[in-house]
Amino acid sequence: MADFDDILEELKQKRDELRVQMHLASKDAQDEWEELEGKMKEFSQRAQLERTGEDVGDALGSLGHEIKLGYQRLRDAIKSD
Fold first, then answer.
1. Distance CA 7, CA 64 (A)
2. Percent of the chain with pLDDT over 90
């Protein structure tokens, strides 16, 4: 569970940094933000249930990685606007 706690904390930090900049972002970036917010909610919920099995853990790791890449894309898009 510690691995998912670490991932969750890293994602929360990236999310907080981006949230401050979102008001300046393009409509496409804002749309992606909304999609990532849904995935972040799902990740947080699954992290609470991670103890239920290895398959859930694998899926959770993939989702966390997808969110992290999405936050990186948003950060890059905001910087290039």
1. 7
2. 17
Q: How far apart are the first and last CA of the chain?
A: 38
Is the pTM above the cut of 0.85? Answer: no
Cα dihedral sign, 50-54-59-64 = positive
Q: Is the per-residue pLDDT at 51 higher than 60?
A: no
Return the ∠ at Cα 45 (arms to 39 and 51), rounded to 5°: 125
CB atoms within 10 A of CB 64: 22
Q: Say which residues have a Cβ less than 8 Å from residue 21's Cβ, sequence separation at least 6.
A: 75, 78
Confidence label for 19 from pLDDT (cuts 50, 70 and 90): confident
CB atoms within 10 A of CB 51: 10
